[in-house]
Amino acid sequence: MFLSHQKKIDIEKEKIKSEFEKKQREREERLRRELERLKMVLEEERKKELEKRRRELEEKRVEIEKKRQQEFENKIKELEERIKREKKIEEILKREEKKEMPEPASKETDDIWKIKRVDIPMDYTELEKMLKSDLKSMRIHALWALGEKGGRISYQILSDFLKDDISFEEKREALKALKKMLLFEDTPQDIKLKIEEILKEERRKGWIV
Hints:
Number of strands: 0
Largest sheet: none
Radius of gyration: 41 Å
Number of domains: 2
Helix content: over 70%
Distance between the termini: 134 Å
Low-confidence stretches: 100-116
């Protein structure tokens, strides 16, 4: 009778154990499925975030490309205007050198070549820094800009620059900038006289200016 009772206890224990293991397996399976679901959610979120980032980068790239294209077009336009302007100035200077009577200037010509100038947003301090740049193209651009700005300060900077040890191209551009200032009506008369003296001296040295 005792054995029979013990057997019942063992059976009951086994039953409890089996039930516990079953619940444990079910719990583990639920956890596994939940983990898989979370992984899928995270992967989906990651994909969405990556796609969002990709779109943002693409939009930024397009924006930068458009900005660069606009800057390039502006540079081309500025260069075309500069070439047109330099050509006109060369024509005027050639007429002066040949002592020819200048053609009657229209109001539009006066507006363009004597009153209006290319707007140079940089101040003299920035232009002086550009003249000290290691890049020759930067120095050449600064010389051109000083000629456009005109005035006493431009004259002083250009005349000082000519005293330095500079290249042939830089000297030519500096002389062109000074010569251009002679065409501007608002250039002070004493500055014009000083410029003419400089040009006269350079011609004596053999420079064609």
